[in-house]
């Protein structure tokens, strides 16, 4: 009964917030960059086959695929020729035989941005010593819980709580909160998945603290002066199907996956688009040899663009990746954003994963204790 009251209050809060908030078509875009070199190498196609700590980002239900008792991982990448830096880290643990939890963080930042609003002094002189710098950072903390549904064999379910902090120097900042939910269902060699991103809307409450000189500069240059507001990221529904088959005496594992990202906020520049629904497909494949060496590829960002001649053409972003697993260590690499028709240059992405098996730890500690007893 107490839980029902808490949930009711949360829903009432969301109702009032939604009435005051402004829906934003492109909000919290740093959460759309993607984590884990495996997924990026497969063309950002991962919600069905994901089975590690990155599930906290892609599909919370995927946490149930973790085989070890404790798993940790991290990723670093740079975009726009190193101007923007993206960092990700996560740790996941088995809570019991039917549930798994994880904590993840994401930081996307551009540091040392020149602030030229005070470049000209009161006498109209240009003084470069008056240029200062500031940082623009986006941070997200994700708490994820996944559980196996015993009554339906092969079905896993997971939820995700996101806490967001965004800052632009000392001038502006926002706190945000949102929820994700996902499910996977395994049937023979197939795995089906559905993920609801920002299912209640993710709310960012922005507040501004502009100094008087910056406000006057905005007014003189005809820029809009921002005011405190609440911005909401509208929900998305992602559907996915993966198929895995072992060949050559189970030495080679082939996995193919297709995802469909569905948005409901009007027409977007994606492959399938209407005034009310836009569908963005992605496709990926992975070839694994004796669960040690992996080769990956995929495509995403299928859209119409105008070339230099003014002709409309279809643009596709290819991605490539490799992976290596040795005992408890996994190292993955992806090359993404290298299509000539994209605005940004290509990026090299590395991610590292560590599996820690509690049984092996206990065995090692027991062995060490036994040797100490013998020594004494």
Structure explained in plain terms:
The chain is mostly beta strands. It has five helices and 18 strands. The chain has a 14-stranded antiparallel beta barrel with strand order 2-3-4-5-6-7-8-11-12-14-15-16-17-18. A hairpin with a 2-residue loop joins strand 16 (312-326) and strand 17 (329-336). The radius of gyration is 24 Å and the shape is globular.
Task: Give the arrangement of secondary structure elements.
Layout: H1 2-20, E1 22-24, H2 37-41, H3 55-58, E2 70-79, E3 84-96, E4 99-115, E5 132-148, E6 155-168, E7 172-187, E8 190-197, E9 202-208, H4 212-220, E10 229-233, E11 236-247, E12 252-263, E13 272-273, E14 278-289, E15 293-306, E16 312-326, E17 329-336, E18 347-356, H5 358-375
Parallel strand pairs: 1-10
Antiparallel strand pairs: 2-3, 2-18, 3-4, 4-5, 5-6, 6-7, 7-8, 7-9, 8-11, 9-10, 11-12, 12-14, 13-14, 14-15, 15-16, 16-17, 17-18
Q: What is the CA–CA distance across the termini?
A: 57 Å
Number of helices: 5
H/E element order: HEHHEEEEEEEEHEEEEEEEEEH
The side-by-side strand order for the widest beta sheet comes to: 2-3-4-5-6-7-8-11-12-14-15-16-17-18
* Fraction in beta strands: over 45%
Q: Brief description of this entry?
A:
With 376 residues, the chain is mostly beta strands.
Give structural attributes.
globular; disordered C terminus; disordered N terminus; 14-stranded antiparallel beta barrel; 15% helix; mainly beta; 18 strands; 376 residues
């Amino acid at each position: 009964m107490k839980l029902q009251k808490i949930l009711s209050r949360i829903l009432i809060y969301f109702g009032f917030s939604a009435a005051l908030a402004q829906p934003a078509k492109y909000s919290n875009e740093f959460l759309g960059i993607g984590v884990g070199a495996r997924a990026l190498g497969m063309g950002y196609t991962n919600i069905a086959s994901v089975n590690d700590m990155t599930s906290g980002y892609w599909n919370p239900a995927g946490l149930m695929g973790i085989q070890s008792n404790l798993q940790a991982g991290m990723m670093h990448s740079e975009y726009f020729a190193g101007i923007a830096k993206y960092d990700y880290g996560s740790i996941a643990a088995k809570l019991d035989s039917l549930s798994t939890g994880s904590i993840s963080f994401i930081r996307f930042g551009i540091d040392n941005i020149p602030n030229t609003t005070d470049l000209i002094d009161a006498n109209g002189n240009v003084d470069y010593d008056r240029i200062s710098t500031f940082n623009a950072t986006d941070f997200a903390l994700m708490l994820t819980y996944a559980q196996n549904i015993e009554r339906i064999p092969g079905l896993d379910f997971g939820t995700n709580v996101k806490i967001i902090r965004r800052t632009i120097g000392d001038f502006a900042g926002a706190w945000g909160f949102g929820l994700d939910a996902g499910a996977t269902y395994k049937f023979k060699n197939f795995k089906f998945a559905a993920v609801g991103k920002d299912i209640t809307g993710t709310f960012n409450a922005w507040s501004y603290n502009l100094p008087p000189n910056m406000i006057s500069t905005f007014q003189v240059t005809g820029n809009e002066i921002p005011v405190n507001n609440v911005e909401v990221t509208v929900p998305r529904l992602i559907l996915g199907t993966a198929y895995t088959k072992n060949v050559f005496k189970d030495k080679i594992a082939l996995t193919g996956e297709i995802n469909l990202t569905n948005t409901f906020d009007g027409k977007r520049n994606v492959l399938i688009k209407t005034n009310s629904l836009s569908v963005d497909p992605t496709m990926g494949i992975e070839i694994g040899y004796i669960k040690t060496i992996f080769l990956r590829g995929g495509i995403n960002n299928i859209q119409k663009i105008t070339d230099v001649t003014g002709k409309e053409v279809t643009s596709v972003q290819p991605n490539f990746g490799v992976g290596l697993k040795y005992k408890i260590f996994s190292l993955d690499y992806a090359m993404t954003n290298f299509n000539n028709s994209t605005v940004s240059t290509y990026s090299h992405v590395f991610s590292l994963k560590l599996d820690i098996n509690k049984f092996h730890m206990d065995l090692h500690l027991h062995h060490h204790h036994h040797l100490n007893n013998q020594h004494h």
